[in-house]
Amino acid sequence: MPMNLRSPSRLRRRSILAAGIGLAIARPARAQGFPNQPVRLIVPFSPGGAVDFVGRLVGQGMGPHLGQSVVVENRTGAAGAIGAQFVARAPADGHTLMMAPITNFAMLAGMPGNNLGLDLGRDFAPVGTIGAVPIVVVAGAGVRASSLAELIALLRKADRPLSYASSGNGSTEHLAGEYFATLTGTRMLHVPYRGGAPALADVLAGQVDLMFATLPNVMQNGSGLKVLAIATGTRSSVMPDVPTTAEAGLPGFQVSSLYGVLAPAATPGPVLARLNRDLRAALAQDDVRNRLIQQGVLPEPTTPEATAAQLREELSRWGKVIVEAKVTLN
Fold it and tell me: Could you give the maximum distance between any two Cα atoms of the chain, in Å?
């Protein structure tokens, strides 16, 4: 049954949805012989973006611990829903996983008019969290603003709304932009893409004015852009000269995207435990951890249960933002 959150009871349904995650974790089953073939890690966004980078790095790190290769496969579209639906329908044996932007999917779950067929509690079981990816406010060279304060002033006096790119309707970049507009009392034109890398490329080319982009995407693809602020409480060690949004005059705007690994809901508990163990082992490797940090990802590995709790928190937070900003998928 596709998820439809149009009714007044959508908040209650989200609570039931999130509670189901814990039930998926607790299902008893045996994991004899796992893994007995290569593991597929589905990335639901285009190659070159932050989700893709993190997925490939983590997959390479997990392979030796699993004793099987981890094959990364990109399945794009519908703000990640195409890849998510593929994983949800895959055999629940641990051999098909998803590199998941957890915050993004929590946002999608709270969207009015969301008929994308995603039910996080019914369709997925958490393997574990990888870490947090901050959002960075960037502008194209043609935008007449060199600071966050100047950008806000420009947005307020502009004859036409400035445009901002995202990796798709309902994505973290999309909701970050709507949240920013609500906090600043400004208007912007949202331009969705099929991934973070092509979206940022068009900002760089001057086709779109702004982006509320993930830090890894900016570090990989953002050379030549104006980096105005990072939406975290403290400065990033990889961009120490970039002020936080609080330092730049907008303390309420803090947005990071949690990344994690999800499996089909009926995946046996022992398989989830094995996958979590090997995920944490991969993140403990110096080469993997250092590359994540160098690309702006703060590694924060968790248990499946802790990941489920994080998802519940994200559902609550972004559900409120969506209601206040009156955001829809259209």
Answer: 64
CA angle 29, 315, 70 (to 5 degrees): 45
∠ CA 284-295-138, rounded to 5°: 150
User: Cβ(85)–Cβ(118) under 8 Å?
Assistant: yes
- Domain over 10-28+35-132+258-325 is classified CATH 3.40.50.720: no
Split the chain (330 residues) into runs of 10 and give each run's mean pLDDT: 36 48 45 88 89 93 97 88 92 97 85 72 91 95 97 95 92 93 95 92 97 92 94 93 97 93 96 97 96 88 93 88 83
Determine the residue type at 318: W
CA 47 – CA 52 distance, rounded (Å)? 6
Tokens 């600071």 found at: 147
Integer angstrom CA distances of residue 68 from 62, 65, 98, 260, 285: 9, 8, 16, 20, 17
CATH 3.40.190.10 domain span(s) along the chain: 134-230
Report in angstroms the alpha-carbon separations of 58 from 116, 170, 285.
27, 25, 10
pLDDT in tens, 113-164: 765 677 777 789 999 999 998 999 999 999 999 999 999 999 999 989 999 9
Q: Is 134-230 a CATH 3.10.520.10 domain?
A: no
SS3 200: helix
Query: Would the CA dihedral through 147, 153, 158, 164 be positive or negative?
Result: positive
